[in-house]
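Exercise 7. Given the components listed, write out the predicted structure of the assembled complex. Treat all entries as one system.
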Amino acid sequence: MDDSLNSWFAREILVHEGALMRYLRRSWFRREEVHDLRQEIYVRVYEAAARSRPTQPKSFMFTTARHLMTDRLRRERVVSIEAVGDIDALNVSVDEVTPDRRLDAHQELKRLADAFDRLPDRCREVVWLRRVEQLSQKQVAARMGISEKTVEKQIAKGARLIAQYVHGDRHAHRHTRAGEQETAIELGHDQ
Amino acid sequence: MTSSREIEHIAASWLARRDGEHWNERDQRRLDAWLDASTAHRVAYVRLDAAWQQSGRLQALGAGWRAGGVPPRGSWATPHTGAPALAQPHPAATPRGWRAATRRRSWPHARLLAVAASLLVVVTLALAWHGYGAVEQASYRTAVGELREVQLADGSVATLSSDSRIRLTWSRRERHVDLEQGEAFFSVAKDRARPFVVSADARRVIAVGTRFAVRRDAADLRVVVTQGLVRLESDGRPDGPHQATTLLPAGSVAIASDGGVVVHSGTVQQAQEYLSWRNGFVSFHDTPLATAVAEFNRYNQRKIVIDDARVGAMRVGGNFRWSNTDAFVRLLTRGFPVKAAARGNTIVLSPR
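Answer.
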């Protein structure tokens, strides 16, 4: 694995995930596809960066997002005029769209603590014992009186949820609800 | 085609398996093959792994957690950050109460001169069976104008500023440093099993492996963090078993006083300025002369005295060698409407 590429990716791209998700939710009309769009954007950015690192990673990511959405709309050919019109609205400058700056170390830790607190009880306990008290998975299982397999599952879950919360998807619910309503009205599925 | 959510779940289970004890080379080869199969797999894995790595910083939250077991939710108090009064990392920009405290504290120092004149670092070592095991104790002190670097038994290094005193109590559970007076900078060796705790009366600063300085000023405590992360805890509030804690990452300058904790989060470089004493300097930026003089007096037996409020309110800036009081005074008399007169073991500044 190319470690320098991976750490570049974490440092320059993943930190903007919260902004990216908000942008996608606001711009894309089918909420259930946002997760998939995000993956596609990451793939494009990662592959481009493997060839040569973009000088402005954040802008590059948002440009990629815009292109991807435009491509998909063209391919679909089922989209209303309104939705296509929205694509032009996407051409706002990145900084307007994403006012949140890079977090300082302090906020980052706060976010991590919040993310940790949002984990379900059992998951939270497993993560604490493993990550803070540095027990092995086996020791965690013994301490909690559960199977090692369960510990492993909780760690997988913990990793997913922490990634979701830490990479900035903190207000997912509020945003999506609002987004869903709007797009339900605008959408012109005419075929 | 596998959906992005499914890929994420698969990536998570790979990560969890790799995190376990049964991971072997064959597993690694299989993981590598899975990662190589598609960039989508790879980005999903990199994303989760980055977050999981980051979660290791939770250790900072756990450092010194006493209760054992998982702390209840919301145990991490958010410090009050970005106080405008602390926008610049220099004495002039600190709040009024802090400045007053600086002045107050320099006078007791004068009374301590006789004691400090001994210039001796007193070290006592004692071994005792105490609670959880062997306890090792040692005390270190510096005289006025002396800096001292002390290598501690665990590999940590303590740098004592002028006229300072620390007492160490090392047990199997904790590395405890009592800051009895003055200021000290600590470069802490990592030891997860034994948190490094610096206490001053009812306040504790807790670290695992990091660099920070702690300074007492009358009732106030100042903590400057230049690497890693520390927790600041205060006792004395009878409202529940979990005291409010303040997390201080590198770049923080925190002042704990009766009114609470004020934190300025800046760059590490800004925080370093508070620690230039270690290289023999004091730094001022638009600092009232009274504050600058109090700072000088921390380090020198021969004290500068200001006999006029207008002189004390003048603003000075620059880096000065704290050992060279004469040069500082000379610069003042050249550049400001100030005259200096020697009186006994003091230098008196008055308007010209």
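Discussion: Residues 57-76 of chain A form the longest helix (20 residues). Residues 78-101, 171-191 of chain A have pLDDT under 50 and may be disordered.
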